[in-house]
Write a structure and sequence with these properties.
165 residues, seven-stranded antiparallel β-sheet, two-stranded antiparallel ribbon
Length: 165
């Protein structure tokens, strides 16, 4: 299981606002180029968004479905990746002083991804999460600044906004 965390210099509600906007999914999820809600009310249970993955001149359309949502706290998704199968992505938000500790836990559920899952695959997911959490932090922290709040510098063991589990 690939688990990674990051301390974001924004409140949990500011982070949730980004996660709860299905149109912004492609802004923070690595590998996607466009997203749009297609079913239900994102991010409520069973809602879905369609996203595109560019592969050279081609674009693959896939879907992510909300499997569990505890508004402002937890979001569990099932991402469909065509022949690669599906993956469970759990995102937990924890208040951390005036900031938000975001914990992402991802593992394959079905298909080739599950059958081929190994240490190398795990390392790739860790790199993807690092970039994804960096993008999410940038969106949330910029949103805080645009709203007129000045985010305070947060640190985990002396490293501003970074970490892993």
């Amino acid at each position: 299981m690939a688990v990674r965390h990051r301390l974001i210099n924004a409140s949990p509600s500011a982070v949730w606002d980004v996660l709860a906007d299905g149109h912004r999914y492609a802004e923070w999820v690595v590998g996607t180029s466009h997203s749009e809600p297609v079913r239900g009310q994102w991010p409520h249970k069973d809602a879905a968004i369609r996203f595109q993955v560019p592969l050279g001149p081609f674009k693959l359309a896939n879907e992510t479905v909300v499997r569990r949502c505890d508004e402002g706290v937890d979001l569990e998704l099932e991402a469909h990746a065509g022949p690669l199968g599906t993956a469970r992505i759990a995102i937990e938000l924890r208040p951390w002083g005036e900031h938000c500790l975001v914990i992402v836990d991802e593992h394959p559920l079905q298909g080739a991804g599950g059958r081929l899952h190994n240490v190398g695959f795990e390392a790739v997911i860790q790199m993807r999460h690092r970039t994804m959490l960096s993008r999410l932090a940038r969106l949330c922290e910029n949103g805080v600044r645009e709203a007129g709040e000045a985010p305070r510098q947060a640190s985990v063991q002396g490293v501003a906004g970074a970490g892993h589990a």
